[in-house]
Description:
Layout (H helix, E strand, L loop, with lengths): L1 H6 L9 H7 L4 H26 L2 H5 L2 E5 L5 E5 L6 E9 L5 E3 L15 E12 L5 E6 L4 E5 L4 H9 L5 E7 L5 E7 L7 E8 L15 E7 L1 E3 L2 E4 L4 E5 L2 E5 L5 E4 L2 E5 L3 E9 L1 H28 L7 H15 L17 E4 L9 E4 L1 H34 L5 H20 L12 H6 L9 H17 L6 H7 L12
Antiparallel strand pairs: 1-18, 2-17, 3-14, 3-18, 4-9, 4-13, 5-6, 5-7, 5-10, 8-9, 14-15, 16-17, 19-20
Helix pairs in contact: 3-6, 3-8, 3-9, 6-7, 6-8, 7-8
Amino acid sequence: xxxxxxxxxxxxxxxxxxxxxxxxxxxxxxxxxxxxxxxxxxxxxxxxxxxxxxxxxxxxxxxxxxxxxxxxxxxxxxxxxxxxxxxxxxxxxxxxxxxxxxxxxxxxxxxxxxxxxxxxxxxxxxxxxxxxxxxxxxxxxxxxxxxxxxxxxxxxxxxxxxxxxxxxxxxxxxxxxxxxxxxxxxxxxxxxxxxxxxxxxxxxxxxxxxxxxxxxxxxxxxxxxxxxxxxxxxxxxxxxxxxxxxxxxxxxxxxxxxxxxxxxxxxxxxxxxxxxxxxxxxxxxxxxxxxxxxxxxxxxxxxxxxxxxxxxxxxxxxxxxxxxxxxxxxxxxxxxxxxxxxxxxxxxxxxxxxxxxxxxxxxxxxxxxxxxxxxxxxxxxxxxxxxxxxxxxxxxxxxxxxxxxxxxxxxxxxxxxxxxxxxxxxxxxxxxxxxxxxxxxxxxxxxxxxxxxxxxxxxxxxxxxxxxxxxxxxxxxxxxxxxxxxxxx
Length: 489
């Protein structure tokens, strides 16, 4: 019985603190938290790779476009471009309003037209005919240009330096004489201009002096409308796959999502947009590599540290990834719905419960691309997004299962630490009888009730072993002589 008491099996001995600490195994909660942290790190790296695969730059920026008639239109792609074909027909290009002097000069830098100032306003006319308008509506604030050097070159230089929304050029006609031509800086039917003159000769609208540059199409020709219109402002007119379109400019004409054209001439052209196979192949390889790296790391962790029977959440992760890689995906009107159809084949693991792998057959990918390049690309991007969503269900801070599991374990660990470090209440019953026997000086703290309970404990135990009552218990525990005492049934 003394051996039983000494071992602490009766009431639960604390044992030696130093020996217990040295032999204590690693904290299982801390081990599990470390494993979960590693799993979340693996998934985080996996998600970063997936997000690169279906990023807009890769998903929509890898297209190339060609024009069957580059003289009619050039074409470019940007984010959002998809495989497509566009029939473009241009009936009219956008153009800027232009007007020229009705007089000519034999030189550009010595003969003066006149002096004074020009007030130039850009806006739009309400036309009643091709050269006559009932009103003018300004788009911008009028700009006044002082003309002190009245030669053709001097006037052109002053206008161009004023930033008035028009461009002036001195042109030479077929006979060798020179004229001043003024054009709106912007194309489009609503981008016209008006020029009023303050002529130093005192008459601002006649055909003498600087007033010869007046140009207001609400005025009479030769009396305020003294320049001759050489080109009317107009919008570009075109059709895309039969649908009519109009634009104030010839550049950046949107044919479809992420596809634009620059109109160069009237005529027709077929615009073809195709996804770049090189980028598609690179993305497919990246998906296989990211999947295999993640599954290999998870397999290693599960095989070496994480016991599936203890953590079913972690144990299900590789199987969920396996399933996702073999899923059928919605892919619009395309018949391509499985990764295996575009060359990404799944291989099962050697042991059930672990993660499988993906391998890429470039020939199969090329064949799928040749038959349905848009469907091939969309399937790849959809699969990458779906795998990312699955990983996110484990790692997201808002409700990821691994995150929630870690938080629960951390709470459990904090509760354990509180119990371990809570001071013992004094005057409590000894942990076992041996503790009472070894430290009699502390027994003075026991109450009469506790001593009575101890005596009752010894009595009950002696009934259970009536043939050998330990003298040590009777002598020291109950205050009797420890020698010469025995009890026999």
